[in-house]
Amino acid sequence: MARDSRYDVLFEPVRIGPVTAPNRFYQVPHASGMTNALPRVRAAFRETKAEGGWGVVCTGACSIDESSDDAPLPFATLWDRNDIHAHALTTEAAHRHGALAGVELWHGGASVMNRSSRLPPLSPSGIPWMATHVGFMGNLRPRTMDRADIREVLRWQAEGARKARTAGFDIVYVYAGMGYLGYEFLLPEYNHRTDEYGGPIENRVRFVREMLDVTRDAVGKDCGVALRVSLEELRGRPGRHHPSEAHELVAQLSDHADLFDVKMDSSPTDCSPSRFSGEGSHEPVIDFVKTLTDKPVVGVGRFTSPDMMVSQIRRGVLDFIGGARPSIADPFLPNKIREGRIEEIRECIGCNICISSWHDGVPVRCTQNPTAGEEWRRGWHPERVAPATRPGKVLVVGGGPAGLECALTSARQGHEVTIVDAGTSWGGRLTFEKTLPGLAAWNRVADYRLGRLNDMPNVSLYLDSRLGVDDIIEFAPDHLVLATGARWTRSLYSSMEIPVGKLEHENVFTPDDIAAGRLPEGPTLVFDFDNYYYGGVLTEHLASRGIEVAYVTPAGQASAWTIMTNELPLVHRALARRNVPVTTLHRLKDFDGDTATLAHLFTGEETKVACRAVLIVGLRAPRTELEEAIAARRGEIDAAGIRSLVTIGDALAPGAIAHAVHSGHLAARELGRSGSRAHYLRDTPITDREPAFDRAEAAE
Ligand code: ADP
Ligand code: SF4
C-alpha cells in the first residue's frame, strides 16, 4: 500500500553537523541492559531498529571513566580498545542499513555509587543523591570537584569522543540530564560553587559548554555533537534575558552543539507510564527550544501515531521524532509508516516493563515485542518467522495475551490456526483490565494481535466457546495449545513471606469477582501482596465507584514493585488524591464481616480495622481444569492424532502480561519440537586485546 503523502515530511533527511540522518526517525539513547559483556546481543538489538527504518540509532549511557560506575545497574563503557571493538559491532550493524550510529557518552557524577570501581563519586559541590528506594540507595557520598577534576572530566570526554569515532559512531553526545554530572552543574541545588562554574546560569552552563567544546575539538569534523539535556526544572525558573533558565541555556549553547536532545528530569516524568500520562507529554516543557536555535531538535513522547509525529514537525516543536519505547515495541515503526502499513504498527502500551529490565539489571524485555533482546541469542526477528517445516492444524484454547500471541506467530509460520475463547470478547485478562483507571492503552496488546489475525486467511477465531476435552478430541488438531489463564485466590500471607491458607467469608473478594462485576458494599479493605499494579489500580477503581477503601500491604510501599516501572510515586499520588489511607508493613490475619485484623509484619502487633468487605490481591493460581481433564484421557488424545500439547502463559506460570506474550511466542516458535526446549546462545565479551594495555592509548 502506498504511503499517505501527509507523512512524507517524516522521511526527509536532516543534517546534524557534518553528518546527515536519512530521515526524521531518531532512536534516542535508551538503556538496554546490554553491557559490553553482551556485545552481539546489543548489536543485533540496535541493528533491528536500523533495519526497521530508524534513521539514527543510539547506544544507552556509555561511561567515559571508572568514576562513572552504575553497577549493579547495567551500563556500557568506552574505556579501552576492547570496548571500541565491542561498540564497533553496533556501529557496523547500524551502517549496514544506512542509519547513523550515536553514542551517549556519560558521566554519572553524584548519582552513581561506584560500587564496582570504589572511587568516590564526583560532583560539583559534594551534594549526594539520597534515594529512598533500597535498589538505588548508597552509602558513599560524593566529593567536590576542584578545577583539576573538571579538567580531568573534560579530558575523559575528549578521549571518549575519539574512541567513539574510532568505533565508528557518527554522533557523539554530551549528557547533561537526569541527575548526572552535567545536570548537577546546571542546578543550584547541586551546584553551590562560588567559582566561575557556579552562581548565575551563565556560570552553571560553563561545564556543559566546555564538554561540548572539547567534544567538538576532538571529533567535530567527522561527528555530530549532540547535547542531551533535561529542561523540566530549568523551565520552571525565571531567566534574566529569557522567560526561563531553560531558555537561557538553549540560547547560550546553541552555537556549541549540532543537535539538541531535550528531555525531562527524572525517569517517572521522562519515561512516564501510560497509566498516568499520554502521548506527547513532554511538549509543554520542550516546545520553545526550536525558537532559540537553528540546530535540529529531537524529543520523545511515546510517539506511535504518525499524525502526531507530523504535527510535532509542522508546528515547529521537533525536527526529529525521538523514540525509545516505541522503537522497542516496534523496531519497524518507520518502515510501516513509509510503506503505508500503519495498522500493522505494534504500538507501545506504556507499561514500562522495558524500564524494569534495566532496574533488574537484565537485557531489555518488552510486553508488546517478545523478540526484543532475543534477536541474537534466539535468532528471533520482530517481523519474520521461518515457515513451519511441517504445517499443521493448531488449536489455541484461550484468547488472552498468551493465546493471541501464540496464534499469531504460529499462523505466520503457515499453520492452520483456530483460536477459541469462552468469553464474549478477546483479550483474556485485558477485557477487564483495560477498563481500569489509566489502563486503556494496555489493550493494544490484544488489538494489535487481533488486527493481524483477522487479516489472515489461515486463521479462524471463535468467541463464546468454552472447550472441553470432547470438543478437543472431536476437533483433533495436530498441535494443542492451552492458554487458559489463571485465577486469583483468597490466600493470605505469612510472616515467612509466602502465601498461606485461605480466608473464607462471603464478603472476601478477589480481583476475579470485581472483573465479573461483583462489587463490595460498604467500607472495603484492599490487601495487596501481589505488589505490582493490580492492587493499586483496583483500589483506584473501587474509590472511583464511591466505595470507601483502605489499602494495606506487607510491602514497604503501595504497589511496591512499580518502583521498577516508574509508576510508584504516581501510584501513591493517585491513592492520596482519592483519599485512600495506605498502611504498609502489615498483613491481613482475619476478617469477620465487620472487622479486619492486621498484624505488623515484623513485630506481630495486631490492629483492628472496621470494614464490611475485603479484597485480596495476592496469589494467582493457574487454571488447570482442562489440562487435568486432558491428562485423564491421554489415550483418546493420542488416538485423535494430537501430536503436541503445550500449556502457556498464566496457565503455566502466572505473571505479568509480558511473561504471557513471551511464553506464547516461544511456544509458537517451538511448536511440535521434540525433546527438550532449545537453548539460547550465550554472548561473551570482546577480549581480542590484552586487558593490560594503556587505556589512554585507545583514545589516539
Ligand atoms: P494469559 O495472560 O495467559 O493469556 P488470560 O487469563 O489473559 O491468560 O486469558 C485466558 C483466557 O482463556 C480467558 O479469556 C478465558 O476466558 C479463556 N479460557 C479459559 N478456559 C477456557 C476454555 N476451557 N475454553 C475456552 N477458553 C477458555
Ligand atoms: Fe512499551 Fe511496555 Fe514495550 Fe516498554 S515494555 S516498549 S513500555 S510496550
User: What is the count of helical runs?
Assistant: 26
Strand order of the largest sheet: 3-4-6-9-10-11-12-13
In percent, how much strand structure appears in the residues? 15-25%
Overall average residue pLDDT: 96
In helices, the fraction of residues equals 25-40%
The CATH topology label of the largest domain is: TIM Barrel
Q: Taking Cα atoms only, what radius of gyration do you get, to the nearest Å?
A: 27 Å
Structural category is: alpha/beta
- Spatial shape: globular
Number of domains: 3
Low-confidence segments, ≥5 residues, pLDDT <50? none
The set of bound ligands, ions and cofactors reads: adenosine-5'-diphosphate, iron/sulfur cluster
Q: What is the CATH superfamily classification of the largest domain?
A: Aldolase class I
**Total count of strands:** 30
CATH architecture of the largest domain: Alpha-Beta Barrel
Q: Determine and state the CATH class of the largest domain.
A: Alpha Beta
Strands, helices and their partners?
Elements: E1 14-16, E2 19-21, E3 25-27, H1 39-51, E4 56-63, E5 76-77, H2 81-96, E6 100-106, E7 122-123, E8 143-144, H3 147-167, E9 171-176, H4 181-186, H5 201-204, H6 206-219, E10 224-230, H7 232-235, H8 245-253, E11 259-263, H9 267-270, H10 283-286, H11 289-292, E12 297-299, H12 306-314, E13 320-323, H13 325-329, H14 333-338, H15 353-360, E14 393-397, H16 401-412, E15 416-420, H17 430-433, H18 444-454, E16 459-462, H19 469-475, E17 479-482, E18 486-488, E19 492-493, E20 499-500, E21 508-509, H20 511-515, E22 524-528, H21 533-544, E23 549-552, H22 568-577, E24 582-583, E25 586-591, E26 595-600, E27 606-610, E28 613-617, E29 620-622, H23 625-632, H24 634-639, E30 644-647, H25 657-669, H26 695-698
Parallel strand pairs: 3-4, 3-13, 4-5, 4-6, 6-9, 7-8, 9-10, 10-11, 11-12, 12-13, 14-15, 14-17, 15-16, 17-30, 21-28, 22-23, 22-28, 23-24
Antiparallel strand pairs: 1-2, 18-29, 19-20, 25-26, 26-27
Bound molecules: adenosine-5'-diphosphate and iron/sulfur cluster.
